[in-house]
Write a structure and sequence with these properties.
Layout (H helix, E strand, L loop, with lengths): L1 E3 L2 E15 L2 E10 L5 E8 L5 E7 L1 H13 L3
Antiparallel strand pairs: 1-2, 2-3, 3-4, 4-5
Length: 75
Amino acid sequence: MQSNETIKYELVEEIATLSENGNWKKQLNIVQWGDNIAKYDIRSWNKDKTKSGKGITLSIEEMRALKKALNIIDI
């Protein structure tokens, strides 16, 4: 486990990079925050994954609902 200031986390799986801005990458990952169950996570990370920006975590049920919603819209 690594520590993001005082918050412990483990980057379980890197799934996709959504965008890059300098040394920061907005990514979809699976992250375990503290002692909680690992969840899907969308947020920006610095190059060495020691700092992160604000983001959103999604349970498997929320991820399924998001996938279903994205399949409906015309992008």
